[in-house]
Amino acid sequence: MRRYETIVIIDPDITEEDRTALLSRTQEIIPQQEGVFIQEDHWGLKKMAYEIRKKPRGYYVLLDYCGTGKAVDELERFFRIDDRTMKYLTVQTDPNADAEKILEEIAEAKKQAEAPKEVTASSEAAPEQAETQPVEAQPAESPTEVEPKTAEDSTVSEPTPEN
């Protein structure tokens, strides 16, 4: 199985419901073609480098999935015939991907991302400990003590007198 990323630019003028319906349909196509949908990343409304269909902006979505060429072909066929999609690009990111391993790694990353939140919650519960530790004051450097690092930094412009 191969791993693919597809970036889709969706018409910015469609409603949120239509966009959700379009993306849910793409999530259905991949398993129908013996693939595994991994994740969907919404980049949001962005300005495009050039206008497409006389529109300067588009709604960007990144689809990450594993599958065969059949899944890519069917997904791109769907984007080609659907008027809500303005552009799409599919890139193969891994020729020998293991979908189960990738899903496990993503689940582990989510657990680790949630773990620091629990640590900060326990540190917020004991504010007395944070207040009892002294804070050392560091002397501020005066501008005359700082030496320039490059030749460009050594040139100092004199202020112009005001009339």
Q: How are the SSEs ordered, and which strands pair?
A:
Layout: E1 2-10, H1 16-32, E2 36-52, E3 55-67, H2 69-81, E4 85-94, H3 99-125, H4 127-132, H5 151-154
Antiparallel strand pairs: 1-3, 1-4, 2-3
Descriptive terms for the model:
163 residues; alpha+beta; four-stranded antiparallel sheet; 30% strand; globular
What's the short story on this structure?
With about 160 residues, the chain is an alpha+beta fold. About 40% of the residues lie in helices and about 30% in strands.
Structural features, described:
By secondary structure, this protein is an alpha+beta fold. It is built from five helices and four strands; from the N terminus they run βαββαβααα. A four-stranded antiparallel beta sheet has the order 2-3-1-4. β2 (36-52) and β3 (55-67) form a beta hairpin. The protein is globular.
